Amino acid sequence: MRTIDLRPGPAGHAAPVTDVAFRPDGSQLATCSYDGTVLLWDVSRPTRPKPLTRLHHRRLVNAVQWNPVRTDLLATASADKTVAVWRIPEHPDTRRPTLLTVLARHTDDINAVAWMPDGHRLICVSEDGRATLWDTRTGAFAGEVGSHAAHCMMVSVSRDGLVATVGEDGMVAVCDPDRPGSTVERHCAASVEGCAWSHSGTTLAITRDDGVVELLTPRLAVRRTVTVAQTAARAVAWAEDDASFVVGAYDGCLHVFDADGRRLHRVHDARMWPRSVAVARGRVAVGSFWNGPHLVDLATATPLAEPSAPNHGPNAMAVLGGELLVGCDSGTVIAFDPDADGAAPSVRLLPVSDSPVLSLAADGEAFYTGTYAGHVHRCNADGELIAVTESLGAPVPSLCRVADLLVAGTYNGALIGLDPSSLAEADRGEPHAGSVKSLVPFGDGFASAATDRTTAVGGLHGRATLWEHGNLVNSVATLGGRVVASASRDHTVKVGLLERSPAGEAWKVVRRRTLLGPDESVKCVALLGDPDSPVVLAGSYDFGLHRWKVDWDDDNGLRSGRLVDEFRQGVSCMSRLDERRVAVAGWDGQILIVGLDADGEVHVRRRFDLDTLARQARQSLWAVAS
Fold first, then answer.
1. What local confidence, expressed as pLDDT, does residue 336 receive?
2. Where are the WD repeats (predicted)?
């Protein structure tokens, strides 16, 4: 397993902040990030958080949790499938933290951890749906305390030792690990991604994908239902006196309610990534797409501190004219000519939104961006805003320009047809049962890939499922109106040759191949060459760019790809420049231009670095201004 090498600066993280946790006395804050590190902050002066020291994992870090008994112990959970337990000195700027043990028998990414009240045992929940118990004194696996049919997203332990777990299967489970057979379950219609026990242990708050928070008894009876937002509610934390609770939602807001469910405050900042919230000493910490956490006063909802700098992690690409457009976590679209002579092409920074750009599409005259905040923007070639939608109710991870529509796919599975000029809603299609991760033109409609594990083709209505993967589908690509490929978290790429029925009403898969990827999630896919003998490119969370040659007449077993190149972080997205070239972006900020030669081999032709391009563009602006 390769180690992330994002080289964060001294002032913060080099990628979005995934979790936040206050030390029990409130003096320090631990944050973790997609950059593979945990950063400890001195927050004794909450208006001026001070970075103290950094801890490292090999892959992105999903969770941090302080020990409630031994308040100098911190557990950190990572996509490298390990949990580390560290001893943190009171002044880590003068004394280094010590790694005490590593819990390393996990079979998948760990999403969250929670300490048992004894301060020795730790509950870990992971992408494989399992909830496991560990003895941190010895590093020994102590058993399984529950399992979910889909990703287990969060765990919380009450002061009485009741373990609550929630997952994408909609199940809420509560058990006492010391009392076998004590498990009680409740099934929700929506995915459940967050949970937190009140400090008294009498109420469990859960956050649902339909924007609802439920307050439950320990036996999972409903005390109160609170509608938070029109989009998914993601994280929840209680004030220390249990008089209020805070919720982070995918509308980019922090919501504060009293214990009776009355709304007290709503704090909006497009830079927030409220998949994580924490409360201590009347302050709320919130995750961020920028380089550090947000701190907010709980009583007044007044911002106390904000991150200092954006990150330009690439999420999407599109081609407009001769320029490659790259949509970034910063909300900026970076535009440059990948074919320009010389090592330094002309670069433009187009500040489209304060919210991360998750998706891009172009139609020759304008480009469109879909944002985490749920808006779709239409901009002209100069980056000037022409039109913008109201929030579509969820983040927009996919866009596709087809026929007379712009199709937007949202986090909650909606497929929305927009007028390409005004962005007014024109139609709604049959939704996926999960987030629509990718859309590309195909025939007179489009192909789609979603977290419901399916790949489908057609228009907004009358869509046909081509195949199903063993896990969520991250990306879809098409070639020549005849070939579709999809990349999945099940570590495979499926590629199919399609024909239309004689009546032209339905698509049929006449050839299909399953290509073995690396032993990690395959994030993005592209197709090059001829539909009769296509070349498949796929990028993975193993940092690798892989290539397969497809022979439709050869069905002799499963095939592994050839490694073309490697990044310093996972491969993020691809955009085909023409039938023989594709742009490939990694979360390390590298952009590769990859081409297909006459023999069907793939080679890297040019390399660019987003930070360098952004710096070059800023220097050009300063030169003009001066």
1. 95
2. 10-44, 54-96, 103-144
The answer to whether 150 touches 171, Cβ cutoff 8 Å, is: no
Q: Do domains 17-305 and 314-625 have the same CATH topology?
A: yes
Which string of b and e fits 89-105 if b means at least 16 CB within 10 Å? eeebeeeebeeebebee
Q: 10 Å Cβ neighbour count for 593?
A: 18
Question: Running along the chain, 626 residues long, what does each successive block of 10 average in pLDDT?
Answer: 83 95 96 96 96 95 97 96 95 84 92 98 96 95 93 96 96 96 94 97 96 97 96 96 97 95 96 96 97 97 96 95 95 93 82 95 94 96 94 94 95 96 96 96 96 96 94 97 96 95 82 91 96 96 95 80 94 95 96 91 93 83 54
* Whether 512 contacts 467, CB under 8 Å: yes
Q: What CATH number labels 17-305?
A: 2.130.10.10
Give the tokens for residue 260.
Answer: 């009776």
Nearest partner of 284 among 239, 315, 318, 314, judged by Cα: 239
Pull the structure tokens for residue 7.
């080289």
Q: With helix as H, strand as E and coil as C, how does 565-605 read?
A: EECCCCEEEEEEEECCEEEEEECCCEEEEEEECCCCCEEEE
Whether pTM exceeds 0.70: yes
Task: Tell me what pLDDT residue 140 has.
Answer: 93
Residue for token pair 């950063």: 39
Strand ranges, E, within 109-170: 110-115, 121-126, 130-135, 140-147, 152-157, 163-167
Topology given in CATH for the domain delimited by 314-625: Methylamine Dehydrogenase; Chain H (2.130.10)
Q: How high is the pLDDT of residue 505?
A: 72
Where is 317: in which H helix or E strand? Answer: strand 314-320
pLDDT score, position 621: 61
- Closest C-alpha to 336, from 15, 625, 612: 612
Residue 614 pLDDT? 86
Residue among 448, 451, 420, 446 at smallest CA distance from 435: 451
Neighbour-count burial for 152-181, b at 16+ CB within 10 Å, e otherwise: bbbbbbbeebbbbbbbbbbbbbbbbbeeee
Q: Distance (Å, rounded) from C-alpha 379 to C-alpha 369?
A: 8
Please tell me the distance from the alpha carbon of residue 347 to that of residue 326, in angstroms, as a whole number. 11
- Please state, in angstroms and rounded to a whole number, the distance separating the CA atoms of residues 196 and 551: 52
Residue 153: both structure tokens together = 């997203």
User: Among all chains, which residue has been given the structure tokens 């933290």?
Assistant: 97
What pLDDT, on the 0 to 100 scale, is given for residue 249?
94
Would you give the DSSP letter of residue 618? Answer: H
Length of the chain: 626
Query: DSSP state, 412?
Result: T
- Are residues 346 and 338 in contact, defined by beta-carbon separation less than 8 angstroms? no
- Strand stretches in 218-293, DSSP E: 222-227, 233-238, 244-249, 253-258, 263-268, 272-280, 283-288
What pLDDT shows up at residue 343? 63
Distance CA 213, CA 192 (A): 10
Assess contact for 314 and 326: CB atoms under 8 A: yes
